[in-house]
Design a protein that fits this description.
Elements lengths: L1 H10 L3 H7 L12 H11 L6 H15 L3 H14 L2 H15 L4 H14 L2 H8 L10 H9 L3 E4 L6 E4 L6 H10 L7 H4 L3 H4 L3 E5 L5 H9 L4 E6 L2 H13 L7 E7 L9 E2 L11 E4 L5 H6 L2 H7 L2 E7 H13 L2 E9 L3 E8 L9
Parallel strand pairs: 3-4, 3-7, 4-5, 5-6, 7-8
Antiparallel strand pairs: 1-2, 8-10, 9-10
Length: 357
């Protein structure tokens, strides 16, 4: 009964109050309960400005709750993003002992934590605890020690793609964690984009450090790529990685802009209506702003008829599907993350033969 009350209570808290409230939680959180999953979801989408407060709160909550696995991983991640490496390592050691190295997600996070800390030998030692990471080679360690870019391959393709390690944000760290294991981030979703992006004009909205942009350029051989992100650090990383892979400058464009109105006067606003390119494929990952963007882009979608791959927040799901249906698009749900987001492929009905299941 009390947990039901808290579930509805924390659903209504703003980020600042949530970070404070978590520190006075007075009962043990049990995994797989509604309130536990709600807290995990809130931490996943928490404003980075609240990380210092929630870092302190999590330490107490973990002790009370006996270090549940997902919450421990979130605490490790938040602390290393803050540069609190000693605290992150302390949590890591406790959960490693408790779970005996059997949790893949935990091992992956701890390996990368040690790489970020420069403790390469420790990372190599931890990697041997799980079969999926036991083939982490000395070559990867040497690359990181020397500052060399990491080499990434896509299954069944011979192309080698190189990425610099970027650890300046939540998204960049998650992406870099996959790169140091030698693979693209969100590999399973990328497989569904190949046929639509091959040789196409591609717009990558929410490019982060260029994981998808390099996939489109190197694997799909896009005719032209336009990568766009609101974070200038992401734009710089994307440009660096495109250049690193010898993508000709005339084949791409990187734009630092927002797709919705921004309070920051220094950030440009982007809209499809003002873009003269006819894109064949558009990937959209903009953390909940997708509904506003699609609503403002209907004239372009009617005229150009691109295929879209959109990460859709569940709160926007019904509205976006309604708009796209009215525009005569067919939808395929490709994947779902926790209970918050779906990755949906929208294909013009006249091109539906290109569906990939």
């Amino acid at each position: 009964m009390r947990e039901d009350f808290y579930y509805h209570f924390i659903s209504r808290l703003n980020d600042k109050d949530f970070a404070s409230w978590l520190g006075i939680l007075d009962f043990q959180l049990k995994e797989n309960t509604r309130i536990y999953q709600k807290i995990i979801d809130r931490l996943e989408h928490l404003n980075v400005n609240e990380y210092p407060a929630v870092s302190n709160s999590l330490e107490r909550t973990l002790r009370i709750s006996g270090y549940p696995i997902e919450l421990s991983i979130k605490a490790i991640f938040i602390n290393w993003l803050l540069g609190n490496y000693n605290r992150a390592e302390s949590i890591a050691q406790v959960v490693l002992q408790k779970y005996d190295g059997n949790q893949e997600g935990l091992i992956k996070n701890i390996i990368f934590l040690y790489f970020v800390m420069g403790e390469h030998d420790k990372a190599l030692e931890i990697s041997k605890m799980h079969p999926n990471y036991s083939d982490l080679t000395d070559f990867t360690v040497k690359q990181l020690k020397s500052g060399e870019p990491l080499e990434v391959r896509f299954p069944e393709y011979e192309e080698v793609v190189r990425f610099h390690v970027s650890t300046f944000s939540n998204h960049s760290i998650h992406t870099a964690m996959d790169h140091f294991m030698g693979k693209f981030s969100e590999e399973d979703e990328l497989k569904h984009m190949i046929v639509h992006a091959n040789g196409s004009n591609v717009l990558d909205i929410g490019s982060c450090i260029g994981n998808h942009s390099l996939f489109f350029s190197k694997i799909c051989k896009s005719r032209f790529l336009h990568a766009l992100d609101i974070d200038n650090r992401c734009c710089l990383a994307t440009r660096t990685n495109l250049s690193l892979n010898n993508i000709p400058e005339e084949k791409y464009k990187v734009t630092n802009a927002s797709v919705i109105k921004s309070d920051q006067s220094s950030i440009n606003e982007y809209s499809l209506a003002s873009d003269n390119h006819a894109y064949d494929f558009i990937k959209i990952d903009i953390d909940g702003a997708e509904l506003a963007f699609i609503s403002d882009s209907t004239d372009y979608l009617i005229k150009i008829r691109p295929t879209l791959f959109i990460e859709v927040n569940k709160s926007n799901n019904a509205a976006i599907n309604s708009i796209m249906s009215q525009l005569n698009y067919r939808s395929i749900v490709i994947s779902e993350r926790q209970s918050i987001e779906q990755n949906i492929l929208f294909i013009p009905s006249e091109n539906a033969i290109k569906q990939i299941f």
